[in-house]
Amino acid sequence: MKILAVLAFSFLKVGLFSFGGGFAMISLMQNLAVGKNHWLTNSQFSAAIALGQVTPGPISISATFIGYKVAGLLGAFISTIAVFLPSLGAMYLLEKFYLKIRGNQFTQSIMHGVLPVIVALILSVAFSLGKENILR
Amino acid sequence: MVLATAALILPSFLIIVLLSGLFLTWEGNHLVRGAMAGLTAGVVGLMLAVVWALVKKFPRRWYYYMSTSCALLASLYLKLNPIWLVLLGGGQERSRYWFKEFVLNQDLETQLTSERM
């Protein structure tokens, strides 16, 4: 039961802070599943990402794999809901305000600041996955 | 909206549950391992492609490249949590604009339109 709560909380956090699309999420998920909790090895993680790519949906579906690995079917279900919930909420709010804040300086400046960080995060994940693949 | 999202996710959810079940039972198999190694290479290539597409969007300013390198070093060597990096990145750019607007009194509207993503 505790592991389900941990899964839900962690994936809510991942869903909440992954500005910049699915690829930004990969870095957060790696940090969570490989770095912090040792749920997956690095090669299992790259399998998760690959499987997330093969399926038709968005890439954040990799969360489902991690949840399944950790706590079975229920874990998969809970992680999926948790990872999509923040964006769903954000979409609900944005639907009302998006057109107003789209060109807004405040939003623009934050997005400009996040963009280079996203690039760095994707590079760093690509580096750690690629290193694993080459070195063995 | 909730229904639409659920409908979008459901097929992939089912497929991935099936695939992960298969993958976790056959993980030791050398065929599966070979396939995964190939897929990983593909995923890395895809990520590099995404990076390239994003870098092309950078306005040609040195601090974007600076910011990228700093964040890269911080995540590779300091193992800083990505959440903090994202918040830091947003925060530093926000404060830079704030500084320009209120301390230097520059006109930002024209600048932003030229930089808009």
From TrEMBL, chain A:
Compartments where found:
Cell membrane
What InterPro entries does the database record attribute to this sequence?
CHR_Transporter (IPR052518), Chromate_transpt (IPR003370)
Q: Name one GO molecular function term.
A: chromate transmembrane transporter activity
Keywords from the UniProt entry: Cell membrane, Membrane, Transmembrane, Transmembrane helix
Gene Ontology cellular-component terms listed:
plasma membrane
Question: Is Ubl conjugation among the key words of this record?
Answer: no
Q: So where does this one cross the membrane?
A: 45-66, 73-94, 106-129
Q: How does it sit in the membrane?
A: Multi-pass membrane protein
Superkingdom, natural source: Bacteria
Pfam families named in the record: Chromate_transp
Membership in a protein family:
Belongs to the chromate ion transporter (CHR) (TC 2.A.51) family.
- Name of the featured protein: Chromate transport protein
Species of provenance:
Desulfosporosinus metallidurans
From TrEMBL, chain B:
User: What broad class describes the main subcellular location of this protein?
Assistant: membrane
Transmembrane spans: 7-26, 32-55
Q: Which family does it belong to?
A: Belongs to the chromate ion transporter (CHR) (TC 2.A.51) family.
What is the name of the protein in this document? Uncharacterized protein
Listed InterPro entries:
Chromate_transpt
Subcellular localization, as worded in the UniProt entry: Cell membrane
Which GO molecular function, any one, fits this protein according to its record?
chromate transmembrane transporter activity
Q: How does it sit in the membrane?
A: Multi-pass membrane protein
Please provide, in alphabetical order, the Gene Ontology terms of the cellular component aspect for this entry: plasma membrane
